[in-house]
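<instruction>
Derive structure tokens from the sequence

<record> Sequence and structure tokens follow
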Amino acid sequence: MILAVVKPEPETGYLKDEIDTNNTYEQNNYFLKSLEKFLKRKQPLQGTVHSPSYKFYSRSSIATTRKLLDGAIAAARSTVSSSTRPPALTRLRWIWRLAGSYHLTHTTHQLMAEAAEKFTSMGHDRLAEWALQKADEERGHDQLALLDIRSMGYEAEAVVEALVPPAAMALVDYFTRSVQDLNPIGCVGYSYTMERLATGIGEEYIQAVEALMPAGIQATRCLQVHSGIGADLEHVEETVKLVSGLNPQERVDVAAACYETALLCFSPPKEGYISDEELHYILNPLKATHAEENSSDFLDRLIK
């Protein structure tokens, strides 16, 4: 059962708008409070298995692991208190989101390959295999974002060079630092959170984005792949199964990374939201003379 119900937010390329934590807190109130207390201390946890406050982690199953990871995401959502609402989604703002999606996916293949090498050197073959699989799964997803931007009539490479959303780059920086740690296990929590939140994007939201586009323009390739109609549901379950087989400290480390990644996803940008006027000023000189044809075969191959 998925405990955290999420809905899409139009600024980051992933989800950060709403998450229903009521059921999670009712069912796991003691656990979540303990998790939040630990995470807010920002200190390494010692003696996890023997600590009375963390009896939850002494036994593992797929069901309890799912509650652990989704509970960390829910705890992050409850931590962020902001009345700031994002601007309404427009065509220009969709290009901003696509630029964010490009930056989020551009380094994934390389970083996951690096994580796999580290896990191998640590003798953690299951995590190494998982990271290699992720590297393969995410290969070429940045090209989907470029295809979407091109289909909207813009020079895609110039757009992603000009538009570098701070929210997306904060996530990329966190992902990079996780991989560069002596133990890159934080990348498991990062990956789970991003894919778990993306599963909340359904047909209704995709259709709402498509309704913004002129007839014949296909600009939701990247969104479809990173949504509930793509492969992320399967990926989430695979990661839950993987994490359920880790030792207690490792599961806490993954949950901590879920919490910290979710905080970045749910927090409004400190610099405020870019306006449509600013986007128009940046994007107007980047319009392409001829939009490239859609690459439906590429999309079909990635969705499978």
